Amino acid sequence: MNRPADHALVEGPITRTLLLFALPMLGTNVLQSLNASINVMWVGRYLGEAAFAATANATLVLFFLLGLVLGIGIATTILVGQALGARDVDAARRIVGTGLSFFMTVSLVVSVAGYFATPALLHAMGTPDDARPYAIAYLRIIFLALPFMYLYTFLMMVLRGAGDSRTPFGFMIVSVVLDIALNPLFIFGAGPVPSLGIAGSAVATLIAQGLSLGGLVAWMYARKHFLCLRAADARLLLPEPAILKALVLKGLPMGAQMLVITSSAIIMMSLVNGHGSQTTAAYGAAVQLWNYIQMPAFAVGMAVSSMVAQNVGAKRWDRVATVGRVGILASLGLTGVLVLVVYAFAGGAAAIFLGSDSTALGIARHLNAVVVWSYLLFGVTFVLFGVVRATGAVMMPLVALAVSMWGVRYPFALLLEPSWGADAIWWSFPVSSVVSLGIAAVYYHSGRWRRATMMPASAAA
């Protein structure tokens, strides 16, 4: 049987342990972005700029939907990590059972509701008329794939809470290879497979996610993973009020953080859409590059959260501050390399998605020059948030993001757009990043997050 001690994050040298845990997570994030980039490259190069703009709008809706449950997944990661840090496997299994029931229910509700609400969602975003039919066809298939995506995300979060980031990385490789291989098949058709156009890209994602999820579940049961639930554990699927309350009360603010980010991106997209399909296509290409630049921050931040959670559960507070410092340095180093690469090859990188003769290429090169450096600040902020939320302090990160993105980014762009044009949108990104980092740094150094808890001791017992 796979044992909790196999992936303990409370022992050994902190730098080595954090990097070995974070690198598979970074690989997972890079593969996800690579997968998305290759998919939109097929669409942008062979179906036109209107179809490319459609995928940019639909992808934002997808990120918004994943953000709905991502907070619950992060809360599950932290609770599992704290339970295993305290060597309480029974509590970890109870957390998994309650979380699984929640994810299954929410995924089905969102999938059905979203399928029928797709046209209204895209209309509310101001999706360009020439891109809207493509976006509807693509997004509706994505809604059908959503339950697989939700459950896949949940299992990855559980394994990371248990200290295992390698297994999710291995199955992500399978998912990405399948998706990349199936995309041209379903977009253009071959033999008995019909040509589905942009909808074919979404069908490939649905199949890849479903098969990878099935493979991961089969692997966990074949290995007799200690967190697997069997027929005798059916009672664990009945949500425990104390655990469900902790998942919701702590998970919703963390999910709201992602909703603030993605909803802000959707609103910013509506401003970008107002400048026409070329600007939207340029922005969509730039976002593909930004996804890669953000990957180290997300990977290191999530690794820091898992590692801090286990150390908090084990009452190893002496290691927590060091984990934070190492995480900041790792994020700056990894993000800095990518920032330099994008500045050196920004034009060529954007041409991958738009084509070397695209009229949107100049716009993409300009907005990258304005925005890219600010992701260094974002990386530090995300690591600080990763430390504090692992103790249960989830409200201040939400406040910081809401202030910076809703109170600074959008108003800045909206007020200056009449005089600055699209530049007001681009400059709103670094300005809001400075504000969020300032708030995060002040709160972290206050130390008040150390008094937070994920779940009262009496409820955990």
From TrEMBL:
Record-linked CDD domains: MATE_yoeA_like (cd13138)
A Pfam family assignment: MatE
Residue spans crossing the bilayer: 60-84, 96-117, 137-159, 171-190, 196-222, 243-272, 292-314, 326-354, 366-387, 394-412, 424-444
Topological type in the membrane: Multi-pass membrane protein
Location(s), subcellular: Cell inner membrane
Record's keyword terms, sorted: Cell membrane, Membrane, Transmembrane, Transmembrane helix, Transport
NCBIfam families with a match to the protein in the record: matE
Protein name as it appears in the record: MATE family efflux transporter
